[in-house]
């Protein structure tokens, strides 16, 4: 082994890789328990999801080893190229893609299928990091901010056209990265306010909503000294508030619910808030599902039945008898909650939080802007997946089909998150190097 390789081993952040392996190990165990039916069941049955996941782990570790042996500057140099190839791969799904549960985001070759949108998250992260790290780039200019948004959201638009709304929403996590690099806080506030307003349009009728918005606008005006001294500013604030409210309630929300979301996704959003789905959002002749929140209700029962310490490994009745649909993919957390209870679930959350905090620590110690932006992108995407998956599992967010990183079954998902982390570890190993 050369002196360089010895030094590389010392520079690698082994704690990040250890946390990664712990989470993957918990995930494979959870997937196995979700399929377990009897003691006579063969563990090394390659038709089972847990064995396939082990195979993908082997592939991921091999790819990870290749990444660790690659010069860190390589990722900077090929970032735009892999981004273009990723966009081409996404477009190929319209030609070679197969339909999986209503989504056309998979490419199937023989018995093998993979989801390009998962891998393209990596190429988008690299391209965004390289653009923001461009020498002499002034990110305070709106031209550069808009270009960065195009880089981040172009794959998102293509994925929406593939009927994979859940995966497309993940790309909005890049907003957090741009905010860290200097995007005005007003953009973030506007985004949060837009989500709140969209939810309000589902819960409140148009006229009461306008009255509430007007009251808020008046309150904002009174808090603004200029508005108190100038009636024109007051009327401008109220006018803008009315315009935004009308646009959301009458134009934006109806358009999104009719043309972007699937009917079952609209049902899940409305049932989460205890509302009936308006007939205009249903196809002609279609009736609302009698039990659109079945998945969430069963997930809550499974998690709640685990109590403080759980029923024990392999003893989860809801898990064993498949009461929770998709319990080895989107709802994998249910099996952990049922078998290991609040204590086990808390330990899992603790491992995730430790990993996120470790990534943020790695991000802040980078000398290179490219490495810092990449690290924050990884943290943002992991946080988005983690927060949304747990929220939808517990009924705090609509079910939109977002996996739990490193735990949910899915070869492409595991491979993409593995590539994410191994590239981060490789860049961090050269954190004193100015990567260009």
List the SSEs and their pairings.
Blueprint lengths: L2 H9 L2 H22 L13 H20 L4 H5 L1 H18 E4 L2 E7 L2 E3 L1 H17 L9 H20 L3 H6 L3 H7 L4 H19 L2 H18 L1 H5 L1 H29 L3 H10 L21 H12 L11 H4 L11 H33 L4 H25 L17 H19 L7
Antiparallel strand pairs: 1-2, 2-3
Helix pairs in contact: 2-3, 2-17, 2-19, 3-19, 5-6, 5-7, 6-7, 6-18, 6-19, 9-18, 10-13, 11-13, 15-17, 17-18, 18-19
Structure description:
There is one protein chain. By secondary structure, the chain is mainly α. Helices cover 68% and strands 3% of the residues. The chain is built from 19 helices and 3 strands. It has helices at residues 3-11, 14-35, 49-68, 73-77, 79-96, 116-132, 142-161, 165-170, 174-180, 185-203, 206-223, 225-229, 231-259, 263-272, 294-305, 317-320, 332-364, 369-393, 411-429; strands at 97-100, 103-109, 112-114. A 3-stranded antiparallel β-sheet has the order 1-2-3. A hairpin with a 2-residue loop joins strand 1 and strand 2. Helix 2 packs antiparallel against helix 3.
Q: Which parts are unreliable, with pLDDT below 50 for 5 consecutive residues or more?
A: none
Count of helices? 19
**Largest sheet strand order:** 1-2-3
Largest sheet: 3 strands, antiparallel
User: Roughly how many Å apart are the termini?
Assistant: 27 Å
- How many β strands by DSSP? 3
Order of helices and strands: HHHHHEEEHHHHHHHHHHHHHH
Provide the residue-averaged pLDDT: 80
Helix content: 55-70%
Shape: globular
Radius of gyration, whole Å:
24 Å
Q: What structural class results from the helix and strand content? A: mainly alpha
Strand content: under 5%
